Amino acid sequence: MVLKYYFDLMSQPCRAVYIFLKVANIPFEPCTVALRKGEHRTEEFKQKLNKFQLVPFIHDGDFKLSESVAIFRYLTREYPVKDNWYPKDSKQQARIDEYLEYQHLNIRGHCTLYFRQKWLEPTITGKQPDPKKLKILEGNVVNALDKFQEFFLADTPFINSQTVSFADILAACEIEQPRMAGFEPRDGRPRLKEWIERVRTECNPYYDEAHVVLYKRVEKAKQSAQARL
């Protein structure tokens, strides 16, 4: 029975797992979940598909699993995956784990909160965010990105490594997200800019495939900004 993958490509971790499944050549049945329509909020969804009512998640036969990092680690154990994605060497694997644990309250936490306040909630509610609060949130994003570049990209082309790993995919997907809110994370960060392009190159055509909707919204945001000038 083929693995079923439930996802919405508007979600950063969903994009990361999607790209990994593709580049690792793991067969799967794509099962899209339209978060914008609230498909994940029904009681039927909770009872039959995922008790947490979140994406991404997988059904591998009778086994069900949520959380992108847990899914990734499971896949590397159950499927023939190239060593660079999650090295068997203990110290190299620990470097990948270091970022996977770090990112929740740092890159993911700050980029997601800014995106939600600046773009997602105004889009849903029609209410504009508090400028003072938004300035604080943007400052948190700036600080998180600067530290990411300093801590993880100082001496190596990928996250504390010479080769691309799942940590790079996950980080890149998170860092792409604020672009939809008009914030460009690459500006003033040459190492981060070069790193994102390396990750994209290593993972294409699937990186671009997973980001099609995001790219369109980023372009729309740029056009709207130019029209206001």
Molecular structure report:
- This protein is α+β, with helices and mostly antiparallel strands and 229 residues long.
- It has 2 domains: 79 residues, Glutaredoxin; 139 residues, Glutathione S-transferase Yfyf (Class Pi), Chain A, domain 2 (Up-down Bundle), CATH 1.20.1050.
- 57% of the residues lie in helices and 8% in strands.
- The protein has 10 helices and 4 strands.
- It has a 4-stranded mixed beta sheet, with helices on one face.
- Helix 1 packs antiparallel against helix 7 and helix 5 runs antiparallel to helix 6.
- The longest helix is centred in the middle third of the chain and has 22 residues.
- The chain is globular, with a radius of gyration of 18 Å.
- The chain starts with a strand and ends with a helix.
- The mean pLDDT is 94.
- This is glutathione transferase.
- Its EC number is 2.5.1.18.
Could you write a compact summary of the structure shown?
This protein has helices at residues 12-23, 43-48, 68-78, 90-102, 107-125, 131-152, 166-176, 190-203, 206-210, 212-228, and strands at residues 3-7, 28-32, 57-60, 63-66.
Q: What is Rg?
A: 18 Å
- According to CATH, what is the class of the largest domain? Mainly Alpha
Largest sheet: 4 strands, mixed
Which range best describes the helical content: under 10%, 10-25%, 25-40%, 40-55%, 55-70% or over 70%? 55-70%
CATH topology of the largest domain, anyone?
Glutathione S-transferase Yfyf (Class Pi), Chain A, domain 2
Side by side, the strands of the main sheet go 2-1-3-4
Strands, total number: 4
Order of helices and strands: EHEHEEHHHHHHHH
- Tell me the span between the first and last alpha carbons: 55 Å
Report the portion of residues in β strands: 5-15%
In the predicted model, the low-confidence regions spanning at least 5 consecutive residues are none
